[in-house]
Write a structure and sequence with these properties.
- By secondary structure, the chain is α+β, with helices and mostly antiparallel strands.
- Helix content is 34%, strand content 30%.
- It contains eleven helices and 20 strands.
- It has helices at 16-26, 61-69, 73-76, 115-126, 174-179, 235-242, 246-257, 305-319, 329-356, 362-377, 379-390, and strands spanning 6-12, 37-40, 56-60, 81-83, 85-90, 96-100, 110-114, 132-135, 140-145, 150-154, 159-167, 183-199, 206-212, 215-221, 226-234, 264-267, 271-280, 284-285, 288-290, 296-297.
- Helix 1 runs parallel beside helix 8 and helix 10 crosses helix 11 (379-390).
- It is globular.
Length: 394
């Protein structure tokens, strides 16, 4: 089979965001035929793709509905773990917020999925689309924009052209660097320690967000008696914690979290990732758009990262539904205007949470505790939090 060199859309980056977007756009046929899609990815999907590692993602209910629309959820659902209850608290203080799916007439507030499983299922679905060409392993080494197209040079020396180039190549986006798109950054001075945890007590579809003096600590359901753990620490503390024995690590984790989830029995292998806020002040360029982590990398508090990327994906898909030129200025302007408020709001929400709960000053402590207590008893405040958690935005 002859591989084409001219595409409607080329996506740089084949991780969760890029591969999902490829499938979303491959289902469109606004010009009397399906779009010709190309996906450029530097790493083979198996066995050690860096985007499909040992981490887990929390999928909001809105993201699940989008995945159902794309016919992807049925392949992920059998290995997904429901979140039906969420408990938010601050270490050493009484204020808390509790949310339940039943309270808001939802089957679940969200689901937790292991990235390694999600990546495997995603690439099985990619193979079903004849209009998706996959360049892997390959990197984008150069792009030249002209009035009607973008010419791309790959690491193999191949050249292809496209009417729209999408950057989905993560926080250290090569495309962003090549185009010198403006970036705003903030270092949270924290690292996230990722691991799994076994408990004596049943998980019961419950997720926990615990704010500690060192940073937020999240437990996400990953089985009957297993959680996925994201424990944020100051950089120097994180390096120390990474060196602990399993017994001592589990003991310190229990001490930081408390016993609401029962006694912690075992913890798994650990990985550590530095945390920073990084976002583009301009996510579109001539015939180019960046989305997902390439456009905004968030603090992991509240698990908003991939859910925000899913809303980017669905908004871009909607903007391309009825157009003949996917890279036209008016199309990208429409996408940019549609996504601006949600992106800015989510960046503000996650960054404010991370910064607010890291501040030990007594007035802010009082304000935090008052806020948690009020939110748990005032429906309007709780509804605002739930809408963010459910991810029903556009």
């Amino acid at each position: 089979m002859t591989i084409p060199t001219d595409y409607d859309v080329v996506i740089a980056g084949g991780g969760m965001t890029g591969a999902t977007l490829a499938i979303a756009l491959a289902q469109l046929a606004p010009v009397g035929r399906p779009w010709r899609i190309a996906l450029i990815e530097a790493h083979q999907p198996q066995p050690a793709h860096p985007g499909f590692d040992g981490r887990a993602i929390a999928l909001a209910a809105g993201s699940v509905e989008a995945l159902q629309q794309l016919k992807l959820w049925s392949s992920w659902q059998p290995t997904a773990h429901a979140i039906r209850h969420i408990h938010v608290s601050e270490q050493g203080h009484v204020g808390r917020v509790t949310l339940s799916a039943e309270e808001f007439q939802q089957p679940a507030l969200g689901y937790v999925l292991e990235l390694s499983v999600a990546g495997q299922r995603l690439y099985e679905q990619l193979a079903l689309y004849a209009n998706i060409s996959h360049f892997c392993p390959a990197k984008l080494t150069a792009c030249v924009q002209s009035a009607d197209s973008v010419t791309l040079t790959l690491s193999s020396g191949e050249q292809i052209t496209t009417r729209l180039l999408v950057g989905a190549d993560g926080a250290q986006s090569i495309l962003q660097a090549q185009l010198n798109l403006p970036v705003a950054q903030h270092d949270f001075q924290q690292s996230a320690i990722i691991t799994t945890l076994q408990t004596e007590q049943a998980v019961a579809a419950r997720a926990w967000e615990r704010f500690t003096p060192h940073g937020p600590l999240a437990l996400l359901p990953l089985g009957e008696q297993t959680y996925s753990v994201v424990w944020c620490q100051l950089h120097e503390n994180a390096q120390h914690v990474m060196q602990l024995t399993e017994t001592e690590f589990t003991r310190q984790l229990q001490q930081a979290f408390g016993f609401r989830a029962g006694r912690f029995v075992h913890s798994g292998a650990r990985a550590v990732y530095p945390l920073s806020l990084r976002y583009l002040t301009q996510s579109t360029h001539h015939r180019v758009v960046l989305l997902g982590n390439a456009a905004q990398q968030l603090h992991p508090v509240a698990g908003q990262g991939f859910n925000l990327a899913m809303r980017d994906i669905m908004a871009l898909r909607d903007c391309l539904q009825q157009v003949t030129d996917p890279g036209a200025y008016a199309v990208l302007q429409k996408y940019r205007q549609r996504r601006k408020d949600d992106q800015q709001c989510t960046i503000w929400f996650t960054s404010s949470l991370a910064s607010l709960f890291a501040e030990p000053a007594l007035p802010l402590l009082i304000a935090r505790q008052s806020g948690l207590l009020l939110m748990n008893h005032i429906p309007a405040l709780k509804n605002a939090l739930v809408q963010q958690a459910l991810g029903y935005k556009s």
